[in-house]
Design brief:
Blueprint: E1 16-18, H1 29-35, E2 39-42, H2 47-54, E3 59-60, E4 66-69, E5 72-78, E6 88-94, E7 97-101, H3 111-116, E8 122-126, H4 136-146, E9 150-154, H5 167-176, H6 197-200
Parallel strand pairs: 1-2, 2-3, 7-8, 8-9
Antiparallel strand pairs: 4-5, 5-6, 6-7
Helix pairs in contact: 4-5
Length: 203
């Protein structure tokens, strides 16, 4: 549904790539071989597939385990997504910043609470509401429960059979007073570290 916004060959500055699970939209051989990242982090069940597609030995991290690569600290978070090899989300820390990228998962009981201890500055959550993913209302709820400073929806406007409007997510965030930002393909996000950001929701 959305045109390619950057040639992967231009992403040679990337130090590390994560793969939450083995689906092609999360672990694409053509993209990986063009980017040629020095490191790839993935769950144990995806190790062989990641090696096959990326042509490099991945750094494996299981649920609730952490690893450090290229100045980033990665912690794998349980994801509920029915896929061969299993799935995880990642909490990524770098300097003062903490980001959570869910990969694909439903909004299972306790996910937001599990994330709260990481105090995520940004939480990236799927909103398509099908094929093993949470919907927009659920994503807003997870972000609020996690006390994320900013919620960003993903997994929409990619595949016609598997998409959703961000309107439900936007409405739910507004109702919950959860700060959010809807990004379009290729849009860049800069989040300044300002005094009081987490308390006021300003970004």
């Amino acid at each position: 549904m959305t045109r390619r916004v950057v040639d992967p060959a231009r992403l040679g500055f990337v130090d590390v790539v994560t793969a939450s699970h083995g689906h092609t939209d999360h672990l694409d051989a053509e993209t990986l071989r063009a980017v040629r990242p020095p490191a790839l982090v993935c769950p144990p069940g995806v190790r062989a597939l990641a090696y096959e597609r990326a042509r490099l030995v991945p750094r494996v991290v299981d649920v609730d385990e952490s690893t450090s690569v290229a100045g980033f600290d990665f912690t794998a978070v349980h994801a509920e997504h029915d896929v061969v090899g299993g799935a995880v989300g990642f909490v990524v820390r770098c300097g003062p910043w903490t980001l959570y990228h869910s990969g694909d998962t439903v909004a299972y009981a306790g996910l937001g609470e599990r994330l709260r201890r990481f105090a995520p500055d940004v939480a990236i959550l799927p909103i398509n509401g099908k094929v093993g993913n949470m919907g927009g209302r659920e994503a807003a709820g997870v972000a609020k429960e996690a006390r994320a400073a900013l919620a960003i929806p993903c997994h929409f406007e990619m595949f016609e059979f598997n998409t959703a409007s961000p309107d439900e997510f936007v409405d739910a965030c507004a109702r919950l007073a959860q700060p959010y930002r809807v990004l379009r393909a290729g849009e860049r996000l800069t989040v300044p570290r300002l005094s009081g950001v987490r308390r006021s929701g300003r970004c």
